Amino acid sequence: QIRVRIIEGRQLTGNNIKPVVKVHVCGQTHRTRIKRGNNPFFDEVSGHTFKIANCLYDVCHFVMDITGASGDVCFVSGHAVMRKWLLLSDPEDTNSGAKGYVKVSMFVLGTGDEPPV
């Protein structure tokens, strides 16, 4: 099982924005509720169960889209990223700099594994 918790965003670029986070894993997409402002608080959890052998690449590389920017994180060791700020950038223009940050927790659980506290 893959669980992703979108906690909050900060310093998102733009005026009068309505940010939403989309998490794509193994061909499935989860969207947060739409928020307002440049420092949104989401605190939403997405949990999916997969046959991991069919999506090893997606387990390693989570790509999150938020208001036109994207963040990418890879974790294999420990199977978890807990309460980490990810830098958001424009995938079409890698020289444009930071587009904000999103705080997330993500982990992969195998059969019989307990989720981290």
From TrEMBL:
This is MYOF protein. SMART domains: FerI. The lineage of its organism: Eukaryota, Metazoa, Chordata, Craniata, Vertebrata. Keywords: Membrane, Repeat, Transmembrane, Transmembrane helix. Signal peptide: none annotated. It is a single-pass membrane protein. Its main location: membrane. It is found in: Membrane. GO terms for biological process: membrane fusion; plasma membrane organization. Pfam families: C2, FerI. InterPro entries: C2_dom (IPR000008), C2_domain_sf (IPR035892), FerIin_dom (IPR012968), Ferlin (IPR037721). It comes from Pteruthius melanotis. Residues 64-117 form the FerIin domain. The keyword Endoplasmic reticulum does not apply. One of its GO terms (cellular component) is membrane.
